[in-house]
Structures are given as structure tokens and as C-alpha cells.
Amino acid sequence: MLQTFPLAAAAVLLAVLSIAAGLTGGAAMAGGALLGAVAGFGLYHSSFGFTGAWRQLVRERRSSGVRAQMLLIGATALVTYPLIGWEAQTSWNMNPVVMPITLASAFGAFLFGAGMQLGGGCASGTLFTVGGGSTRMVVTLIAFIAGSVIATAHLHEFWFQLDDITGIPNIPAFSVISQFGTLGGMVSLAVILVSVWSLTLRLESRRHGSAEPIGGLSRGVIGPWSKATGAIVLAGVGIGCFLMFQRPWGITSGFALWGAHALEALGFSVRGWGYWSGWRSNQLDSPLLANSISVMNFGIILGAFGASALAGRFAPAWRLTRRDLITAVVGGLMMGYGARLAFGCNIGAYLGGLVSGSAHGLWWLIWGFAGSWIGVELRSRIGMDPPVSRRSTIAAGPA
After folding, report:
1. Bigger pLDDT: 319 or 66?
2. Considering only Cβ atoms within 10 Å of each terminal Cβ, which end of the chain, N or C, has fewer?
């Protein structure tokens, strides 16, 4: 049943956020708040996540969540690849995320993957479950922010020098759009997406005899939505980021900024850290509502808040077990730290990299999934998940 007061609160807070962001950073920031709210709404109603989808594939060989991710990436890239590749024709400069392949980013993605299983959600999953009323995920978010800002203390001073320290060279940034052209890049991405889709579908069919669909009925604004509906809505968010901000959707750099602002407010200066030198020093002197990623993050929380109220499911649980607290803190710290090393999270590096045409998105997927597999095993060993039979069809959680 619809919850009137939480819904009204979500609407008022979103209006305040949008107006304040607009006054601070202009129309684009106001639009970013609303775009974030759409993301939170879609994430919540479709329970669209990376953590639960990967856990379900590892534990139960269910692939619907992973296949929905392939749909999200493909639908986004159908628009972003032409936007990036045809800049000369459109005179519209894009800023895709194309990063090198490094040992540090592999370790970071692995750490993030394991951490998101312990923490109970990835970056987007943490935000939308916080908006949906999860008190445990509030703890995860605080630890996520702490881990993010801790990593910036020595990111440039150590991790970005790891190739010199170890003698293992970095692989330079590689863009399939630059190398193969727009259409060639789209074909190469399609090969990856179809391969992952086919492999995971085969794994599920072998285990269960058939595969769960990702489509189906979606119940309007009150939800729930199918995974396919969630993927298409989130693809719209990703495309909106390129149209509005000329870059892919990101989340975790906002967490590092929140942590840095908090430390500065407490009297601890981060300005001597290499990460916060150069252009990032301007972020420390500007309000958070002037940063598009921060504004969208706030919007995600409020969008999920409104969605949970419409669904009649906003009901924070205030009692947390000791294990809940410990795993939330440890998982959050691991995700925050790992995301900075890996140039982002499942949204900023994996999704953002692939829809930018960057090979580092695939690199992140490989190491992030490997870390997630270890995280799933850790969850089982400490009793976070019940034993699952070979023929189990237990649905994945909202993470």
C-alpha cells in the first residue's frame, strides 16, 4: 500500500535538491538531480544490481541478472558509440572514460568485487538500498566513503607508481572506437556481450533445464519491474549522462569527494595528497552540489526513497547483528578503497568503460567478477547465505 508521508517527503526533498543544485551549478545540475532520481527509481523497482546477479550466477547458475547487464551495456552503447565516434560530424565533444590496464586496477577491481559481496551491494546498490530504507547499507555507505578517501591519501604516491616498483608495465589506454571506428567498435562490443549472454545462458540451462526470462510484466510506477525494463531505464540514464555532461555515468568519485569535504570540515587538510592536486583541487573549493556525480548520487537515494514509498515497502529495520555491522564496515572499506585503484566501480569503470569503448571496462569485469566469486565463498563460510542445493531456484536479493 502506498505510503503517503514518505512519498511526500521524497518529492519535497527531490524538489529542494533540484532547485539547490540548479542555483549552485546551473540547469545541468538541476537536471542531474532528476536524472539520478530516475536511476534510483529504476534500480529500486527492478532490483537491478550487480552484486546479487553475480552471486546468483556463482551459487545457483542463474543468469538473468547478468544477461540484463549485457542488455544495459548494449542499449547504452547503441547511442554512446556514435556520440563518441562522430564528434567531428556533430561538433559535440564527448569525454569518454578510456583508462590504461594496470596491476593496481586489477587489484582494485578484485578488492571491490569481494567487498561488494560482504557489504551487500555495489555502489549503485548501496545508494538505492539506502534510499529504500536499509539501515545496514547506511553503515556500508559510511565505510564506502571512508575507504574511498583513505585510498586518495597514497593513490598517486604508491599505486600509480606500481609499474615502476614492480617492473610490470602498464598497458596503454585502448579505445575500440578509435582503433576500429564507430561501427567496428560496436561489432567488437557486440561479440563480447553476446558471448557472455550465451555462456551464462548455457550454464543456467545445463543446471536447471531452462532459463529464467529477463522480461515480463512491469507494474507501472508502483513496481515491481522486470530486469529488462530496469536495464532499458538505466540505459536511458547512462545516455542522459553523455547528453547532459558529455561523460559516462559515475558514482564512487563522489564518495571520495564527500569524504574529503568531511575531513576538511573537521580540520584535516587533504590538499597535499597527489590525488587532490591539479584540477581536483577546485572540487575541494566548490560546494558538493556543483559536482554532477554528487548531485546524481543524492538523486539516486531520493528516487529509491520515492519508489519504496510507492511500493509501500519503506520500513527501516533498526536492529543489526554484530555480523551485519562487521561485514558492512569491512565490505564498505574494501569497495571504497578498491574503486579508487580501479578507476571506478561497476558503474564508473565496468559499465562506463565499456560504453566508452575502453578495454579497461573488460579488464575490470574480469577481476571484479573474480573478486566477487571469492566474496561469495566468504559469505557462505561465515553464514551470510544459507546452503543452496544444486536445483535451488532461490531468487537473488535486491543487491
Report:
1. 66
2. N
pLDDT tens track for 53-67? 999 999 999 999 999
Separation CA 72–CA 231 (nearest Å): 5
Whether 224 and 313 have beta carbons less than 8 Å apart is answered as: no
- The helix/strand/coil state of 101 is strand
Exposed e or buried b per residue across 193-215, where buried means at least 16 C-beta atoms within 10 angstroms of its C-beta: beebbeebeebbeebbeebbebe
Give Cβ neighbours of residue 311 (< 8 Å, ≥ 6 apart): 44, 45, 222, 223, 224
Could you tell me if 353 and 97 are in contact, meaning their C-beta atoms sit under 8 angstroms apart? yes
Which of 314, 304, 326, 388 has the alpha carbon at shortest distance from 40? 304
CA 137 to CA 398: how far, in whole Å? 12
What 3-state class would DSSP assign to 24? helix
Measured distance CA(15)–CA(335) in Å, rounded: 31
What does pTM read for this prediction? 0.93
In the chain, what's the furthest Cα-to-Cα distance? Answer: 60
What single string gives the DSSP state of each residue in 134-174?
Answer: -HHHHHHHHHHHHHHHHHHTTTTTTGGGHHHHH--PPBPP-
Q: What is the CA radius of gyration of the chain?
A: 20
